[in-house]
Design a protein that fits this description.
This protein is of the alpha+beta class. The protein has one domain: Sulfite Oxidase, Chain A, domain 2. The chain is built from nine helices and 14 strands. The chain has helices at 50-60, 75-80, 103-106, 121-125, 150-155, 183-190, 228-232, 284-288, 331-334, and strands at 21-23, 44-46, 135-140, 146-149, 160-167, 172-182, 198-203, 223-227, 237-242, 245-246, 256-258, 271-277, 312-315, 322-323. Strands 5, 6, 9, 10, 11, 13 and 14 form a seven-stranded mixed beta sheet that branches. The longest helix has 11 residues, at 50-60. The two termini are 21 Å apart. The structure holds ligand MTE and molybdenum atom (MO). Molybdenum atom (MO) binds next to loops. Its EC number is 1.8.5.-. It catalyses: L-methionyl-[protein] + a quinone + H2O = L-methionyl-(S)-S-oxide-[protein] + a quinol; L-methionyl-[protein] + a quinone + H2O = L-methionyl-(R)-S-oxide-[protein] + a quinol.
């Protein structure tokens, strides 16, 4: 199996088209009312240009049916009201103030090899992924192994916004406004036994929904993992939405992991199984190329990928490159997790 990855600067990027989002008056309790394929955050009403309606919507696949236009608001006004771009938006403790990557780019420039290795494959093919009905198997070192319907699982937690940087190992980055809940809240609720030391995540295996799984570019299903203390860190997040709406298929519907201090490939999409275990999981990328991808995969500008430097990155939508920060800028929150570890060996 040869590693299909190349550094990002060899790949062209799509054009930007901002998707305007505006706020409406809805109580916080209504934020919890979730229906399949609906807007996850009823506080916001989504406005899209006529071009988006006719052009892109079909390509974006499931979960994007709710497209409404608020009467009397021009597209420019709607854009100014975007809760993620507005300067006075109240920021959460972990939110970055950096400019959020527009919805159009975050949903058309994707890595999701279950659909194919091209950046445009996921958006083009995500319609074949059916995020409802969906169950998540919880097993291993937990008091009550169980299979939970995704809507039940979501209803356990109030949804939060998190605006996180995301840095792909290929050398590009985005700023993603996620909606979801802390992974720690889920793990606590599952009551791990004293033997639980790691969390293993498994994505869906289904060649009907994932045409790319007919090719053995990776060993399917995609598997990822975290040490239990990493999983319990307040930054670790389970996303069910993006830009205020249901997570599109190409971004990992209906449930994906977000660990912003690690390279993007740790952020496993379309999770069907979460296993608490006493053994370090063998992740998909470690299995594919162990000399190139380690278990930790913490963003580290000082340690090059064997085939390219990790010192800089290109923010999607920007020209030029910026310096990559240790732990992707989240060192204050997570560096203590790796105290005493050699981060060159544990790459
Ligand atoms: N199941 C699955 N999850 C995955 C991948 C994948 O191929 N399959 N690619 C990863 C990589 S390499 C990156 S950079 C991010 C990209 O997330 P995004 O498309 O939402 O930006 O998803 C990660 N999660
Ligand atoms: Mo990536």
């Amino acid at each position: 199996m040869t590693d299909p990855r190349t550094p990002e600067d060899q790949t062209p990027t799509p054009q930007a088209t901002e998707t305007p989002i505006a706020e409406t008056q809805t109580s916080d309790s209504q934020r919890r009312i979730l229906t399949p394929g609906s807007d996850l955050n009823p506080r916001r009403e989504f406005l899209r240009s006529a071009a988006m309606f006719t052009g892109t919507v079909a390509a974006l696949g499931g979960g994007l049916e709710v497209l409404t236009r608020r009467p009397g608001l021009s597209s420019a006004e709607a854009q100014a009201a975007d809760p993620f771009s507005r300067a006075d938006r109240p920021l959460g403790p972990y939110d970055t103030k950096e400019k959020v990557t527009p919805y159009q780019q975050a949903t058309t420039y994707n890595n999701f090899y279950e659909f194919g290795t091209d950046k445009s494959d996921p958006a083009r093919l995500a319609g074949s992924l059916k995020p409802r009905p969906w169950t998540v198997r919880i097993d291993g070192e937990v008091r009550k192994p169980q299979t939970i319907d995704i809507d039940t699982l979501q209803s356990w937690f109030p949804l939060e916004d998190r605006i996180y940087r995301m840095r792909c190992v290929e050398g590009w980055s985005m700023v993603m406004p996620w909606l979801g809940f802390p992974l720690a809240a889920l793990i606590r609720r599952l009551e791990p036994t004293s033997k639980a030391k790691y969390v293993q995540f498994t994505a869906l295996l289904d060649t009907k929904q994932f045409p790319g799984q007919k090719q053995q570019v990776l060993k399917w299903p995609y598997v990822e993992g975290l040490r239990l203390d990493e999983a319990l860190n307040p930054l670790s997040f389970m996303a069910v939405g993006l830009h205020g709406r249901t997570l599109p298929g190409q971004n990992g519907a209906p449930l994906r992991l977000v660990v912003p201090w690690k390279y993007g490939f740790k952020n496993i999409k379309s999770i069907v199984r979460i296993t608490l275990t006493d053994k370090q999981p063998l992740t998909t990328w470690m299995q594919a190329a162990p000399q190139e991808y380690g278990f930790y995969a913490n963003v580290n500008p000082a340690v090059s990928h064997p085939r390219w430097s990790q010192a800089t990155e290109r923010r999607i939508g920007e020209l030029g490159r910026r310096k990559t920060l240790p732990f992707n800028g989240y060192a204050d929150e997570v560096a203590a997790l790796y105290k005493g570890m050699d981060l060159r060996k544990n790459f």
